[in-house]
Amino acid sequence: MTLPDPEFQPEFYADVPAKRLIAWLIDSLATIVLTLIPIVLTLFIGIFFLPLLYIAVGLAYRTVTISLYGATPGMLLTALKLRRLDGSRPDAMLAFAHSALYSFALSVIVLQIVSVAMMLLSPQKRGLHDQILGTAVLNRAAPD
Q: RDD domain spans which residues (predicted)?
């Protein structure tokens, strides 16, 4: 099993960059809400560790959801899925690596610009972390 060819099955890659942006907004909001929970539970002492807490919550959120569902909740809501180049779902280690590389690229503006450019210009709409790890984000079901 392999990924659909973008030349012969473009519907699997249609609108993927825009849908990834929407998914990112949804997942960012969810991560913020989940980060607030331990801050409130620690009577706001956790605010002193906000950057580390946000990174840890984001890594856990993405790793758990990608390893369980092959997508984050934002990706599920926008009908996207993450797959290996052989078409299989990512395991927990790949989900963690994907989340870690994504977080690193997000923190370095030049890498983020390169990643977005790759998503917009490549036939399979793969970002920098997708290229490095051999993954791709595609539409869950091709429209009729």
A: 18-133
